Amino acid sequence: MTFRQTHRGLFVGLVTLDLVYLVDRPPTHNQKIVASDYTVSAGGPATNAAVAFSHLGNQASVLGALGTHPMTQLILTDLQQYGVTLQDLDAERTEPPPVSSIMVTRTTGERAVVSINAVKTQAIASRIPAHSLQNVDVVLIDGHQMDVGRAIATQAHAQKIPVVIDGGSWKVGFETVLPLADYVICSANFHPPGCQTIEAVMTYLVNLGIPHVAITQGHQPIAYWANNQVGQIEVPIVNAVDTLGAGDIFHGTFCHAILQAPFTAALAIAARVAAQSCQHFGTRRWMEQAIEP
Question: What three-state secondary structure class fits 105?
């Protein structure tokens, strides 16, 4: 597989091993069920975004904690297949990497996730490789490695490298990273302290001085604020097979598009690719279909 390396992106955050099962329905108490399909791949918001960014013809690198446990080879093999490199923040770690067990309901595309995320794999900023930002065109931070993310955002901001924040959910410490961002794209589940509505979240982020803000709402329109203007962008309506990773793919595509298009156009492009991904099981099979982002 050949990759055309147009831009270089650094994706900072969670690296997991994802075990994904396609089921008719999640199990009830003390029930065993048989899946009709399954996939095994690297996962995590920043990691899936990096794979999407690479698939669109760029060079992607993930900055995250992995280690030397035998299970990490499954993660590294998957990333190598999609042209993504890993900068390991904890190369001597011997414990297993975080594992996510995910069940996708066949009829709705909804997913149930059990994961330990990055709680036990937090790295410190002193572990950041000296060359991490060399020739980087865009940085994405998912908040799962907050100390490292803060340091990278500070350096990128000083070097005028665009910083994109993936706000899937609120995490302690985000308040120190958000003011360094050029673009904050968060889900409807992102609730800063005291913010329970989309309007409150938008106001909170705008008051931090963030120049571009967007809030995704699944199949509902994307709300955005930019250049002192508030607006909405419609998203494509599709028959969802699997919504797993759609937000991550959205962010990876946005990082690709924002280097070539204005903010609202980049959001629309990202929404289109994310919608396409929802029509395929797992976080990789959508890439088997040719797309024109």
Answer: strand
What are the distances in angstroms from CA 46 to CA 15, 137, 201, 245, 251? 8, 16, 22, 10, 8
Backbone angles phi, psi at 18, to 5 degrees: -100, 125
Please return the burial class of 171, using the count of CB atoms within 10 Å of its CB with bins 0-12, 13-18 and 19+.
Answer: middle
Task: Give the chain's domains with CATH numbers.
Answer: 8-288 (3.40.1190.20)
Q: H or E segment at 60?
A: strand 59-64
Structure tokens at 115: 């994961």
Average pLDDT over the chain, rounded to whole?
93
| Contact residues for 157 (Cβ-Cβ < 8 A; gap 6+) | 163, 180
Separation in Å, CA 169 to CA 107, 173, 180, 187: 26, 12, 18, 7
> Could you report the per-residue pLDDT of 110-152, keeping only the tens digit for each?
888 898 877 777 899 999 999 999 999 999 999 999 999 999 9
pTM: 0.94
Alpha carbons 120 and 163: distance in angstroms, whole number: 25
